[in-house]
Design brief:
The structure holds 2 protein chains of 2 kinds. By secondary structure, chain A is mainly alpha-helical. Chain A contains 11 helices and 3 strands, in the order ββααβααααααααα. Chain A starts with a strand and ends with a helix. Chain B is α+β, with helices and mostly antiparallel strands. Chain B folds into 4 domains: about 325 residues, no CATH class; about 60 residues, Monooxygenase (Up-down Bundle), CATH 1.20.1280; about 130 residues, no CATH class; about 140 residues, Neuraminidase. Chain B is about 25% helix and about 25% strand. In chain B, helix 7 packs across helix 10 and helix 9 packs antiparallel against helix 10. The longest helix of chain B is centred in the middle third of the chain and has 22 residues. The chains are: A mainly alpha, B alpha+beta. Chain A: Part of a SCF (SKP1-cullin-F-box) protein ligase complex. Chain A: Keywords: Ubl conjugation pathway.
Chain lengths: ~180, ~675
């Protein structure tokens, strides 16, 4: 099963290969596969060739991961052991290592510029890859929270359309609300 | 052949702008009459088309995928369905239809090649889709079923009889037959293309096909349309011929109509192909969504005019709207078109912004007008609720040493928990006594009360937590002070208390802020002196003062189903000493008669048990209670706050383990505490 290859075609007509198990990380692809109408290449006209490999990379890491992170890193080898209660403590430790590893991987994975972030977000949304969507959306949210309005505008290239009077008024309100809360 | 009323193509009629939801009745009728769930694709659409036809609808019909399949229903394979918007115009042959969200799957391989090429079979196409249908002689080049998005159907002026043609063409036999399916790119469900005439719709479709693989994330530049349109119309004459041929075909032989129709479609396809090979202007700034230079589309387009004129008109009438996912979000869209985040569809942008914790929302409001509108909107709080990111803050109404009312707020999730003063309390209620407070939605209401100058007041003030503003609200129908107030079923209930001399003290008011209406009802059971109240199991419980004359404690329960006040069983009332709160449908009471002890009402065995004592070092009675999740907040003098997590309530030596929030420097008395979630 895991050896079944699926081919995805990007919007600019480049074809990429992905394992079926990995592809199942995407609800959209999963539906296509389960629909039984797989017909060679799946065209993804909303995903370009510079984003698709990034998506595939994520799917590979999270393929077959539907809630239980245990399965991924284990590669299925230790699955039987997990059932045994004796291994609980060991399992916990290993689980922790795995989570740390995954976090590190995510950190490296998420190192890209804003346009890629947007594209990846849209691709994740389009392909219904919840984990990736969460990851990307979270990154965008981190560019908002704890920032001043000016920083937010700069981060997202937003022009303030407030009049100077309104701006002043808002600064007063902000002061009232004070920094203690918003920027801790 | 059905004739087409050309004037229909012209400008917009405002009545075509009917919000989704107003015609739910017709939708449900529509849904009742056809069984599309789980059936094969063509049957689905056939039934729908047929029903549409039979209904001869006078009004806009909106059917969203949620209506069809339920919001959480997974998309099953082997069916095809449409999101449909339609309206019947004055001319009965003109049924205006728009199709959105074509869901393709399973056996839909027989769809036109373009589906396979562009959409892939088995794919859920939920980001807007369109059908390009054969042209008709008098319909100037366009017979479009176009897409809209959830919620509003904007200015859709579409040609009618195509629905009928659809039923009779190859469409049925082949799933979708020769209809060309084109999609817009990107996750742009939140977008609406606003148009008022056929050619624009045609242009947008053609644009979609021209863009080919380089689909724009958001189609925004009128220039792009014009370019595409130019290419389209440069090959227009051939189409016209085909149309005539088609018409002849029909005249000759009814059975041949299909063939003729097909040819016409083919011609349209060829035209598509032509535009494609010609190469669309794909390198433009297609992601930016600047519309500032495009005036609102109120121009009438003459569909028969030459290209130049049309192009000119089009530059006025094409406008692109960004619309939030929720239909209600569109209320302000006419005012402000800027996207929330440039380069992202609004629904994704909201997804990002809504994750920002509530304590930053004040900051978000200062980013831009659009952001401020968003954060202040009702949709914002409902969106956060829907996506489980809402946060609950506690609002405390206090009285200081000089008898002035203050409102404080606590964010229990903040790393540095502290009470903050909420500014701007209306001066008129500052000196009130015996006022009540309650929360509905994202608003905190202060009701009634009395002052030196008046016995009891009708006044209601309300604080909008997202706007951070105080306003006057509709008055109570009975002036009250020292009464009980609870929220139940989106309404406020003001019960008992001291009323003005002319009113009956055995009365209660239902107050509905959504309609600004208040109604006074009488019940002889109601007593004026209410000390505590709580909502448990969807019923309001009130408890009166202990009388010196007898042991009896008056207590009533209000059943909303029967609208009656009944006496509460003695066993419950006996243990109800002090403020009450409900956690997980269980009633807790803080008994402050000697020390502070948390009691729990066990409904099954019908008795009160002690949960534990609170350290006298932390609590400063008299206290009020509120609950968030499984935590009970015990808030006392000076807003000293003790948090008890019932999920991990440790009990060391009879004293409960808790955390605390620093109290204020001044010793204010807590009148009431309420929670409010955004």
């Amino acid at each position: 099963m895991s050896s079944t290859k699926i081919f995805l075609k990007s919007s600019d007509d480049k074809t990429f290969e992905i394992d079926e198990t990995a592809a199942r990380a995407s609800e959209t692809l999963k539906n296509i596969i389960d629909g039984g109408c797989l017909d060679g290449v799946i065209p993804l006209p909303n995903v370009s060739s510079n984003i698709l490999p990034k998506v595939i990379e994520y799917c590979k890491k999270h393929g077959g991961d539907n809630g239980s992170s245990k399965k991924i890193a284990n590669g299925g080898v230790d699955k039987d052991k997990e059932i045994l209660p004796d291994y609980d403590e060991e399992e916990d430790k290993r689980e922790k290592v795995r989570v740390d590893e995954l976090k590190k991987w995510e950190e490296e994975y998420m190192d890209f510029d804003q346009q890629v972030l947007y594209d990846l977000m849209l691709a994740a949304n389009y392909l219904h890859i919840k984990g990736l969507l969460d990851l990307t959306v979270e990154k965008a949210a981190s560019m908002i929270r704890g920032r001043t309005p000016d920083q937010i505008r700069e981060n997202f290239n937003i022009n303030s359309d407030f009049t100077p009077e309104e701006e002043e008024e808002m600064i007063l309100i902000e002061d009232e609300w004070d920094d203690e809360w918003a920027f801790d | 052949m059905l004739s087409f009323n050309e004037t229909e193509l012209g400008g917009i009629e405002d009545d075509s702008l009917i919000p989704f939801g107003e015609n739910l009745e017709s939708i449900s009728r529509l849904l009742d009459n056809s069984s599309f769930y789980g059936t094969a694709s063509y049957q689905i659409s056939n039934a729908l088309w047929g029903t549409l036809k039979d209904l001869k609808l006078e009004v806009l019909i909106g059917v969203s995928m949620e209506d069809l399949f339920g919001a959480d229903e997974p998309i099953r394979s082997k069916y095809l369905a449409f999101e449909i918007f339609g309206t019947k115009t004055a001319n009965p042959s003109n049924l205006v239809l728009a199709v959105n969200s074509i869901y393709v799957s399973g056996q839909a391989k027989d769809w036109h090649k373009s589906v396979v090429r562009e959409g892939g079979d088995g794919r859920r196409e939920d980001d807007g889709a369109s059908l390009l249908l054969p042209q008709h002689k008098n319909t100037p080049r366009t017979i479009i079923l176009s897409f809209s998005t959830v919620g509003f159907c904007y200015n859709l002026k579409l040609v009618s009889h195509l629905a009928l043609q659809l039923r009779e063409a190859e469409y049925i036999e082949e799933g979708i037959g020769e209809a060309e399916v084109l999609r817009r790119g990107g996750r742009d469900r939140g977008e609406i293309l606003q148009w008022d005439c056929g050619p624009v719709a045609a242009a947008s479709l053609l644009l979609a096909s021209t863009m080919g693989d380089k689909r724009p994330r958001s189609v925004s530049s009128p220039d792009l349309y014009l370019d595409v349109l130019h290419q389209y119309f440069s090959g227009g004459s051939r189409d016209l011929q085909t149309d005539q041929r088609a018409e002849e075909g029909i005249k000759e032989d009814d059975g041949g109509s299909k063939v003729a129709e097909m040819e016409s479609i083919e011609a349209a396809m060829e035209c598509d192909g032509g535009t494609k090979s010609g190469g669309g202007p794909t390198d433009g700034d297609i992601t930016s969504n600047t519309k500032t230079d495009v005036p609102a589309m109120k121009e009438v387009v003459d569909p028969t005019g030459d290209f130049k004129n049309m192009a000119e008109s089009l530059s006025h009438c094409i406008t692109m709207e960004l619309l939030e996912h929720e239909p209600e979000c569109s209320t302000d869209m006419t005012e402000n078109h800027a996207p929330l985040i440039r380069g992202l569809p609004d629904d994704i942008a909201i997804f990002c912004i809504a994750r920002v914790p509530r304590r930053y929302h004040m900051i978000l409001k200062s980013v831009s007008k659009r952001w401020r509108e968003l954060v202040c909107s009702e949709e914002w709080s409902s969106y956060r609720k829907k996506h489980n990111v809402e946060e609950t803050w506690i609002y405390a109404i206090c009285r200081d040493k000089s008898d002035l009312i203050h409102c404080y707020v606590l964010d229990p999730n903040s790393s540095r928990r502290c009470w903050k003063l909420v500014q701007g309390l209306p001066p008129r209620c500052l000196k009130r006594k015996g006022l009540a407070s309650e929360v509905l939605g994202k608003k905190l209401y202060l009701l009634g009360g009395c002052s030196w100058s008046e016995d009891a007041s009708h006044d209601v003030y309300c604080y909008d937590a997202s706007k951070n503003t105080w306003d006057e609200a509709a008055s109570l129908s009975t002036a009250r002070c020292y009464f009980a107030c609870e929220a139940l079923n989106e309404k406020l209930y003001a019960v008992g208390g001291v009323t003005s001399s002319s009113s009956d003290p055995c009365s209660w008011d239902t107050y509905d802020p959504s309609t600004s209406s208040c109604m006074t009802l009488l019940d002889p059971n109601i007593f004026p002196d209410i000390q505590e109240s709580v909502v448990l199991d969807g019923k309001i419980y009130i408890r009166g003062a202990v009388s010196t004359m007898s042991q009896h404690i008056p207590a009533l329960v209000y059943e909303p189903t029967s609208s009656e006040w009944q006496h509460v069983d003695e066993d419950l009332v006996l243990g109800w000493h002090g403020p009450a709160v409900v956690v997980d449908s269980t009633l807790y009471v803080l008994d402050q008669r000697s020390g502070t002890r948390l009691m729990m009402w066990q409904a099954k065995s019908r008795d009160w048990v002690s949960v534990g004592r609170l350290s006298p070092l932390l609590t400063r009675p008299p206290c009020r209670l509120v609950a968030i999740g499984k935590s009970i907040f015990v808030i006392g003098k000076g807003l000293s706050t003790v948090v008890l997590d019932l999920a991990k309530a440790g009990n060391v030596g009879g004293v409960m383990v808790s955390s605390s929030v620093p109290k204020l420097d001044s010793d204010v008395d807590v009148i009431s505490c309420k929670t409010l979630s955004i």
